[in-house]
Amino acid sequence: MGKTHTLLIILLSFKVAFAQQKTIFSGVVMDAKTQNPLENVVVSIQNSTITQLTTKNGKFELHSSIKGEQLLLLHSQGYKDLLLKVQSNFEQQVNLGILQLEDRFTDETPGALISLLESDLTGDNSSSEMTSGLLQSSKDAFMQASAFNWGQARFRVRGLDSENGTMMLNGMVMNKIYDGRSQWSNWGGLNNVLRNQEFSVGAAASNYTFGGILGTQQIFTRASMYRKGTQITFSGNNTAYNLRAIGTYASGMNASGWAFAILAGKRWSGEGYFEGTNFDAESFFISIEKKLNKRQSLNFTGFYTPSTRAKNSANTNEVTQLTNEKYNSYWGFQNGEKRNARIKKVEEPLLMLNHYFKIDEKTNLNSSVMYQFGKVGNSNIDYQRVNSPDPVYYRKLPSYYSSLYAKDNGEFSGEFTPDYENAEKSKALFLEKPQIEWDVMYRANQRSVINSNGVTTGYEAAQSHYVLYEDRTDDKTLAANSNLNIQLSENSAFDGGITFRNLKSHQFQYLLDLLGGQYFEDIDAFYTGNEAQSDLQNPNRQVKEGDVYGYNYNFIATTIDAFTQFRFSYKKVDFYLGQSYSVSNYQREGLYQNGIYPTSSLGKSQKVDFENFGFKGGFTYKISGKQWLFFNGMHLTRAPSLRNTFSNSRLNNSVVNGIENENISSAEGNYVFHSPRLKMRFTGYYTLIKNTTKTSFFYAEGIFDRGASYNSTDAFVSQTLTHLDKKNIGTELSFEYQISLTLKTTLSAAYGNYTYNSNPNVSITNDANAAKGDTQLTFDFGESYLKNYKQPGMPQQAYSFGLEYRDPKYWWLAANINYMTESYIDVSPIARTARFYKNSISGLVFPEATEERAAALLKQEKFDPISLLNVSGGKSWRISRKYIGLFASVNNVLDLTYKTGGFEQARNANFRALNQDVSSGTPSFGPKYFYGYGRTYFVNLTVSL
Fold first, then answer.
1. Contacts within 8 Å (CB) and 24+ apart, 637-640
2. Is pLDDT of 308 > 90?
């Protein structure tokens, strides 16, 4: 009996001791305007698993087992985050009193997360897209400038594509396996339900994943996290869409443990900023949560955002000078209405089930299962044995005649022989008919009906020579993951997770419209006999609307990713260490036996396996309560994207020769100062990405010789770059100063130097050789001398200065001036090879190919600097417990014209062809450019009921 009492006393003493090792923080959270208590506000200790939601009365009581100075975060959808510094001393109760959250009505800025520029869409055949910035909603002044001001000019944070950042939804990675990027169209119109986010910038630690060198963006759609109520939003602008309407409702958590949130929206436009760019999209979202008990909840998320968007063309200087910067060659009139031939359609619904399990006060286990399916289609015109329907086809433009040269005179160039008379005729004809002629194509697909008197009485459908088709990608993705977070002690924490993803991607050509014809031949008209057949299993097929033709295959991919991370936090120092491991398996399955590649197109390819690892770490030194120094570093290997693994996936199973993992290293150092009036961050960073691969397709003139292995000097080829390295070095400045209670100024600066850091190898594949029985299909063109060329497509330097006035009566006005420079064109790699200087017939170097002339021809074009003035303002009202918010902005107030990007055409594939074209003064194959928006507006009205 005595032993029993002794044991009970010991156990009781342990319980008491354990109970005393806590600090209790309590308080009441209220709306700053209405002074009403706020329910379901997330109250948490940063860098820990300690979290609680406020009650209906706005109260919370948070038990912390971590000792010392901590950061207490209050987060609620629709409100600004509140971050408090608190001191945790065991055996104490700390009453924080009334804590007020301010409305985030200023966040009704346009397209915070989902904004897309037409020029951002770099891959028509890709099922995903690249945006100008990943971390679009951070409160850092620099990130705000990069998203809302510099994004107009395609600015990219640290010069990195979005494949270098990790996009997550409820802990699940959303980057596509196909190209490593997110399908941003999947999120269109969901702005109001995507505001619950967490960010880690650069190589900083994330609780949910190992991440990428650009950072991690985690979106939460848990139903109980949404602010209870109804919100209706109306918007208007003159960029991609003209009108938008969105309705959102959140129930909050009821007494039965249920919560749900729903959204429905519509965006549409008869014509956007550029000619012929119509837009139509719907958005549907639902999140349902069931609280199983105090520790477990299930949450279902589903959304469906079908969209149809007409594209606009990149144009040469010649075309722009003949028309204007808004000119778009992709559309033409049909029956009095504009019809665009290049439409992107996205329909990829997503279903996700999450299980949230709070095992104890220190341990959380969150798991999810996701299934996404649907289709992405990019339409275009296909044609056989007729002229190109493209109104800017080079033979239809004046430059075709004004850049003519006579035949070569031995080893020397022929004389310059421009035909200015026909150039003028061509100009007049183009200006008369500058768009696609749909009626001409319809007529070409029909034959005349002639009566007995030889009189044409009408037309009937015949073989189609022109059709409208779609490059289709039908993906099915199944994924599952689990994420574990443990507070090991008051100073240490563990994060770990594993993710499995399986993709089956059906890629095919789909016939949309016979354009008045009866059928279309499933052949490649550039070849004859068996080589012309798309599928030798079904030769000479006549296809109709709704049929698959041309190419047809599956991509099959499986990836497994795992990570672990340990975080340590002390009074003056924090640090972390993270590790990752992943395996990737890719395979192509050909569904057609292509006539050019009869033995390597049908059936499954070899499996391509990649194994990768990563390490990262960071160190923070707390100089004082206002100043921090922190450093992050990361090294990882990464599998090449599925897109770049196969050299010509539409026709055969061939894998890129010598493909290997990418090798990535990154380091950054930061100084941060935060005070009530001044917030500042200064960052320096270095990134090196090695062994990247890039595949492209184009028609090249004068690329091959006439020897035994090269049957023609001209060819449609696929070009593969391997061992391409990139180096990104730069600094960032974020400065925000509260001049007075109502006036604030911001200054943001990005200074970067983004270059190619290697001379990649170029290989060219000529399908025509296979058709002619040659055994050599791929030719090694050696190195392309790209080292020290600038990476293209974004400003490498950007600066922004802004002023913002906020009146106590809840209206505000802001203006900022932005300057962006050091933006360069995308150069042609083949023009930087040694073979480029050789005559493809004789094999000798062109005599006119001097070092001085080559330097002038191949100098990378630098775009003019861009200066943009943007203004915005807003006003909010509280009427009968209803909130009304009005936001308006005007970007590029001065309506300046500027180029956002461009690329050199690779058609002139030898020195003489390029030199003659440029020397003519009116090149037929000059660079093509994208242009930014002129003066645009955005107006947003939000009503919260």
1. 637/612, 637/613, 637/661, 637/662, 637/663, 637/664, 638/612, 638/662, 638/664, 639/559, 639/582, 639/584, 639/610, 639/612, 640/610, 640/692, 640/693
2. yes
Number of other CB atoms surrounding residue 458 within 10 Å: 9
Note whether 496 and 563 are within 8 A (CB).
Answer: yes
Q: Are strands 42-45 and 331-334 parallel, antiparallel or unpaired?
A: unpaired
Whole-angstrom distance, CA of residue 681 vs CA of residue 731: 10
Q: 146: which residues sit within 8 A by CB, 6+ positions away?
A: 132, 133, 135, 155, 157, 748, 750, 798
- Which one, of 781, 723, 731, lies nearest residue 756 by Cα? 723
Q: Is the dihedral of CA 161, 165, 170, 172 positive or negative?
A: positive
Q: How far apart are CA 659 and CA 345, in angstroms?
A: 32
pLDDT for 104 beyond 80: no
Q: What is the pTM of this model?
A: 0.85
Is residue 401 pLDDT above 90, yes or no?
A: yes
Q: What is each CA distance from 41 to 53, 62, 252, 287, 682, in whole angstroms? A: 5, 13, 11, 18, 32
Distance CA 265, CA 286 (A): 12
Residue 474 has pLDDT above 80, yes or no: yes
Integer-rounded Cα Rg, in Å, for the chain is: 31
Identify the sign of the CA torsion 316, 320, 326, 328: negative
Smallest CA-to-CA distance from 54 within 80, 90, 25 is with 25
| Predicted pLDDT at 227 | 86
Q: Is the pLDDT of residue 250 over 70?
A: yes
**CA-based nearest residue to 66, from 81, 53, 49:** 49
For residue 673, the tally of other CB atoms under 10 A from its CB is 15
Closest CA to 87 of 75, 100, 71, 73: 71
Averaged pLDDT of the chain = 87
Spatial contact of 658 and 644, defined as CB atoms under 8 Å apart = no
Q: What is the pLDDT of residues 536-556, one digit of tens each?
A: 999 999 999 999 999 999 999
Q: What is the pLDDT of residue 92?
A: 80
Residues 6+ apart with CB under 8 A from 879: none
Tens of pLDDT, residue by residue over 482-533, are 999 999 998 999 999 999 999 999 999 999 999 999 999 999 988 888 989 9
DSSP line for 634-681: EEEEEPPPHHHHBTTTTT--PBPTT---EEEEEEEEEEEEE-SSEEEE
End-to-end CA distance of the chain: 66
- The candidate with the shortest Cα–Cα distance to 56, out of 267, 220, 252, 247, is 252
- Amino acid 10: pLDDT: 40
Assess contact for 615 and 578: CB atoms under 8 A. yes
Contact between residue 542 and residue 522 where contact means Cβ atoms under 8 Å apart: yes
DSSP-based helix, strand, coil % in the chain, nearest 5: 15, 50, 35
- In 3D, which of 387, 380, 316 has the Cα closest to residue 344? 380
Residue with the bigger pLDDT between 781 and 863: it is 863
* Residue 701 in tokens: 């003139």
Helices (H) and strands (E) in the chain, counts: 10, 47
Closest Cα to residue 551, out of 527, 517, 587, 524? 524
pLDDT band at 715 (very low <50, low <70, confident <90, very high): low
> DSSP 3-state assignment of 759?
coil
Q: Cα(157)–Cα(202) distance, rounded to whole angstroms?
A: 10
Which residue, among 588, 597, 911, has the nearest Cα to 765 in the 3D structure?
A: 597
Report the alpha-carbon distance of residue 145 to residue 671 in Å, rounded: 19
Side chain identity, residue 276: G
C-alpha span between 555 and 772 (Å, rounded): 28
pLDDT in tens, 64-74: 877 777 778 88
Which tens digit of pLDDT belongs to each residue from 125-152? 443 333 333 223 346 899 889 888 998 8
